[in-house]
Design goal:
The chain is of the alpha/beta class. Helix content is about 30%, strand content about 30%. The chain folds into 2 domains: about 5-250, ANL, N-terminal domain (Rossmann fold), CATH 3.40.50.12780; about 250-355, ANL, C-terminal domain (GMP Synthetase, Chain A, domain 3, 2-Layer Sandwich). It has helices spanning about 20-35, 60-70, 90-100, 130-140, 145, 160-165, 260-275, 305-320, 345-355; strands at about 5-10, 10-15, 40-45, 55, 80, 105, 125-130, 150-155, 175-180, 185-190, 200-205, 205-210, 215-220, 230-235, 240-250, 255, 260, 280-290, 295-300, 330. The strands form 4 sheets. A 13-stranded mixed beta sheet has the order 2-1-6-5-7-8-9-10-11-15-14-13-12. Strands 18-19-20 form a 3-stranded mixed beta sheet. It has a two-stranded antiparallel ribbon with strand order 3-4. A hairpin with a 4-residue loop joins strand 12 (about 205-210) and strand 13 (about 215-220). Helix 1 packs across helix 3 (about 90-100) and helix 2 packs across helix 3 (about 90-100). The longest helix is centred in the N-terminal third of the chain and has 15 residues, at about 60-70. It is globular, with a radius of gyration of 21 Å.
Length: about 350
């Protein structure tokens, strides 16, 4: 039975952690698991609304862990790096995978580059990260360490086109994930690089998918207690095992009777801005408009831009995008609104930008 964690700090590995809160919370959860606790209350991330507590059973978490380990081809004794907040499902399931499947768990404080303080002689086989962490590790030259891994999963936020291109250069298997607290972490993986790279998410074994009348994904599986979870994610079903994610139904902008999926448009806008040497976080949103119903606006996470830059952006967007997709207004916001685990809150950010 798994019975220990390793703590990483400043190029060392130790179990003497003092008062480090992240490690102590992880160790306490593992103790409760080993003692046989049968259910756990976990808060949702709060990225699409008010965080809410959800009770998840031990059996659900065990099933989810085994499905992931099988899908990724991990083995007992592999080294896993836990670098996400273990108060939320993504980080907590890393702990469960370690305990259920006898992985060696190395815990580090969540940071933009979780490999930065890794001891040189420690090889990591598996890690789960958010896109911001993945981009930082690649940009800061940790490609060799990444390529030694057996699998990396990336989730928590959409992956930009630019990051997707960077990940294609890696030789280790990298997967985007689809899931949520209600599905006990991910229920589908999308290979981002190599010969098996795909445009579609493939569901794990024994997961059934369908659509409701809005075109949103529904999920039924053992890990949902065989209850059907109805999501707000608009998808295109390819077959019983594969789907394409289009965007959130509650984010869709209805402009002049045409539906615009912000998440897809954001990737195009991001590439246009990179061509102008402007690289920052951005959001496409819709705000009320008398003639269109909603008009498309662009929100940039920058303190301010001079009039010359703003004019260049407007012209490039107008020349590169269909008229109905080109943002009608551009807002600059020094700081987006984020949840505790680093996801930006789209609706709150839109309100803050359009009503300063």
């Amino acid at each position: 039975m798994f019975n220990q964690l390793y703590y990483i700090k400043e190029q060392s590995i130790s179990q003497e952690v003092g008062s480090n809160a992240d490690f102590l919370k992880s160790r306490e959860f593992c103790k409760r698991w080993i003692d046989g606790q049968e259910s756990f209350t976990i808060n949702t991330s709060g990225s699409t609304g008010t965080p809410k507590p959800i009770v998840i059973t031990r059996a659900q978490m065990e099933v989810s862990a085994k499905m992931t380990i099988e899908a990724l081809g991990l083995d007992e004794g592999d080294n896993a790096l836990v670098c996400l907040n273990t108060e939320y499902i993504a980080g907590k399931m890393m702990l469960v995978r370690g305990m259920v499947c006898e992985l060696n768990l190395y815990i580090t404080e969540p940071s933009s580059n979780p490999l930065e303080d890794l001891p040189e002689d420690l090889r990591i086989d598996f890690m789960a990260v958010v896109p911001l962490q993945m981009e930082a590790m690649i940009d800061q030259g940790y490609i060799d360490l990444l390529n030694k891994m057996k699998a990396i999963i990336v989730g928590g936020a959409p992956i930009s086109l630019s990051l997707g291109e960077k990940m294609k250069e890696l030789t280790c298997p990298v997967f985007a994930t689809y899931g949520m607290t209600e599905t006990v972490s991910h229920i589908a993986l999308k290979r981002m690089n190599g010969a098996d790279a795909s445009d579609y998410f493939q569901v794990l074994n024994n997961v059934a998918i369908a659509q409701d009348d809005r075109g949103c994904l529904t999920i039924n599986a053992i890990l949902t207690n065989n209850e059907t979870i109805v999501t707000n994610d608009v998808v295109k079903i390819i077959d019983q095992k594969r789907f394409e994610w289009l965007g959130r139904a509650d984010n869709v902008v209805n402009s002049g009777g045409l539906k615009i999926y912000p998440e897809q448009l954001e990737n195009q806008v991001r590439q246009i801005l990179i061509g102008l040497d402007i690289n920052c976080n951005l959001i496409i949103a819709g705000i009320a408009d008398d003639s269109l119903g909603e008009k498309v606006v662009l929100i940039l996470e920058v303190k301010e831009l001079d009039s010359g830059n703003l004019d260049s952006i407007k012209l490039s967007l107008k020349n590169s995008l269909p008229e109905y997709q080109a943002p009608k207004e551009i807002y600059c916001l020094e700081n987006f609104v984020y949840t505790e685990n680093g996801k930006f809150k789209r609706s709150d950010t839109k309100i803050k930008a359009s009503h300063p």
